[in-house]
Automatic annotation (TrEMBL):
NCBIfam families: branching_enzym, PRK05402.1, PRK12313.1
Keyword field contains Transferase: yes
Domain of life: Bacteria
Key words, A-Z: Carbohydrate metabolism, Glycogen biosynthesis, Glycogen metabolism, Glycosyltransferase, Transferase
Encoding gene per record: glgB
Organism the protein comes from: Marinobacter manganoxydans MnI7-9
Record's protein name: 1,4-alpha-glucan branching enzyme GlgB
Subunit note: Monomer.
Length: 628
């Protein structure tokens, strides 16, 4: 790079909040100045009276390398010759009150391993990507008609090295990819691997929005992981946190002595629940910082999508606040108008510049049109987490089977809104921490019933409309609640009953991916139809999934009582076959099912001309389709 100075055009776009390659401008960049190798530094600090670069190359002396202010922009820059890749640095900022503070680079692309906090000059552009075919296919991908099955991973606790340390990004590539291929997931979602100081935050209190955490290796090591995923046809989604940031003194908080990235008013600028600060989305440069971060991951790391954390906390000015603790918008309402415009712009820019990438909202309220285009009043996300389905389903399965008949509406209510958004069904990390217990321990009954109910839950999820997400450990019935400090209980796979749960998830992924009826119309109301949603006395539901002329029938028995001679209506005659049974002996079940073939009877039932008598296994779900 031979550009030691910043152009007026760069600075103009940044001031407008629309410099989509700002990560190539601000921060630290190896370049040449009149034939001399060095590093250009640039930082936005409009309220500073002076800024300089301190680092290991000048013994952290703040007076040796001062920066110059570009008038009217708030951007400071300098070129330091004779240094390059790998040097450590921070910005020494003198506030307008004369106090000097030492800050890490908001645009730093690598950092020291915590608890150290210096940024590391990192030269990009030398990684040998081999995922061109994947990226080309992704650009043509019709995701709404495709299977999307996501394995959610916390990199520090999925598996540890034999010595007890974390796996590196490259070791994760060698071990995680074969495991995900075996299970059949289409994507991996990483809890935030953006740099963060506190292990216990799981990455959700981010300080390095342009840097992968050094806990697991270098930026190129993460590129290797993503590249290997793509070469094996696995997408990678990154958990991304634009809703708040921590108060650590070395990072963004009061960056130049003022509330620069946050609001000065704590009613707008402080998140009470998490002890963090809220971004000022009305400031052009702050929006540019965040959208630039999103684009950076899609560009520099070939990431396939972003899961945007805590969207609800961004949308509502009164989120988790009592009366008097928040300030209304200009219209007197509780909507954060600036955050709404930020999210719309984020989605438009990401999806236009990187077609085929997914931006998913973790949005827990009934905010309308989250996944509808901005031009019709939507926020523009591709997918929204279906928190209602998750809570209703887990609440239902926590009931003793005897009482489930009185809570049948928890199974049926979700279909009233299932196609109002493009929903993703999440069984995520949030449901297996902080005393909530593991998935399997949420299920009632003895151990056999718990395992059977977990198998029913997974079958119900994979056959229900929407994309799928499962947090690590759930796929084999992890018993202990998840902890970020230890690896999963892999020893459980020595037991057949846990192997059976894993085998069930593997087969469900396979059926979900093969059967067009189960994935081809996940976001369209004509892809789902109830056969019978009224059998609350027996706690049984049955429904159709259809797409592109293909049909599947799903029947679920939520009690431990087998149901013999249970008749359901069918959409057509001929022979039918059972293609999946969660009660199979292969999964640890009692192996109660239905023989092949099952000829449909010309007996009207449930307003259909054809029907069949089935045996419903205890705490079991079956999937039927017409025999070929």
């Amino acid at each position: 790079m031979d550009s030691p100075t910043l152009s007026e055009f760069d600075l103009h776009l940044f001031a407008e909040g629309r410099h989509w390659h700002i990560y190539n401008v601000l921060g630290a960049h190896v370049c040449r100045n009149r034939g001399v190798e060095g590093v250009r530094f640039a930082v936005w600090a409009p309220h500073a009276s002076a800024v300089s670069v301190a680092g290991d190359f000048n013994e952290w002396n703040a007076g040796i390398h001062p920066m110059s202010l570009h008038e009217g922009t708030g951007v400071w820059s300098c070129f330091i010759p004779g240094i390059g890749n790998g040097v450590l640095y921070k910005f020494a900022i003198t506030t307008d009150k004369g106090r000097q503070i030492l800050k890490t680079d908001p645009y730093g692309q690598a950092f020291e391993l915590r608890p150290s906090t210096a940024a590391v000059v990192t030269e990009r552009g030398h990684f040998g990507w081999g995922d061109g075919d994947w990226l080309a296919r992704r650009g043509r991908w019709n995701w709404q008609d495709s299977p999307i099955s996501i394995y959610e991973v916390h990199a520090a606790s999925w598996r540890h090295h034999g010595s007890g340390r974390w796996l590196t990004y490259r070791e994760l590539a060698d071990q995680l990819i074969p495991y995900v291929l075996e299970l059949g997931f289409t994507h991996i979602e990483l809890l935030p691997v953006t740099e963060h100081p506190l292990d216990e935050s799981w990455g959700y209190q981010t300080t390095g929005y342009y840097a992968p955490t050094s806990r697991f290796g270098t930026p190129d090591d993460l590129r290797y992981l993503v590249d290997q995923c793509h070469r094996h046809n696995i997408g990678v989604i990154l958990d991304w946190v634009p809703g708040h940031f921590p108060t650590d003194e070395h990072a963004l908080a009061r960056f130049d002595g003022s509330a620069l990235y946050e609001h000065e008013d704590p009613r707008k600028g402080r998140h009470q629940d998490w002890g963090t600060l809220i971004y000022n989305y009305g400031r052009h440069e702050v929006r540019n910082f965040l959208i630039g971060s999103a684009l950076f991951w899609l560009d520099a790391f070939h990431i396939d999508g972003l899961r945007v954390d805590a969207v609800a906390s961004m949308l509502y000015l009164n989120y988790s606040r009592k009366e008097g603790e928040w300030e209304p918008n200009v219209h007197g309402g509780h909507e954060n108008l600036e955050a709404i415009e930020f999210l719309r712009e984020l989605n438009q820019v990401c999806q236009s510049r990187f077609p085929g990438t997914l931006v998913c909202a973790e949005e827990s309220t009934s905010w309308p049109r989250v996944t509808r285009p901005p031009e019709i009043g939507g926020l523009g996300f591709n997918l929204k987490w279906n928190m209602g389905w998750m809570h209703d389903t887990l609440d239902y399965l926590a009931q003793d089977p005897v009482y489930r008949q009185y809570h049948h509406d928890k199974l049926t209510f979700g279909l009233l809104y299932a196609f109002s958004e493009n929903f993703l069904l999440p069984l995520s990390h949030d449901e297996v921490v902080h005393g909530k217990g593991s998935l399997i321990n949420k299920m009632t009954g003895d151990e056999w019933q718990q395992r059977a109910t977990l198998r029913v839950l997974f079958t119900y999820m994979f056959s229900y409309p929407g994309a799928k997400l499962l947090f690590m450990g759930g796929e084999f019935g992890q018993r202990r609640e998840w902890s970020e400090f230890r690896e999963l209980d892999w020893s459980l796979l020595a037991y057949p009953e846990h192997q059976g749960i894993k085998k069930l998830v593997q087969d469900l992924n396979g059926i979900y991916r093969r059967e067009v009826s189960l994935h081809g119309a996940c976001f369209k109301p004509d892809g789902f139809e109830w056969i019978d949603c009224h059998d609350s006395p027996q706690s049984v539901i049955s429904f159709l999934r259809t797409a592109k002329g293909e049909t599947s029938v799903i029947v679920v028995n939520f009690t431990p009582m087998p149901r013999h001679h249970y008749r359901i209506g069918l959409p057509e005659g001929g022979n039918w076959r059972e293609i999946f049974n969660s009660d199979s002996e292969y999964y640890g079940g009692s192996n109660l099912g239905n023989p092949y073939p099952m000829p449909a009877d010309a007996q009207p039932w449930m307003n259909r001309e054809w029907s069949v008598e089935l045996t419903l296994p205890p705490l079991g779900a079956i999937i039927l389709r017409p025999a070929l």
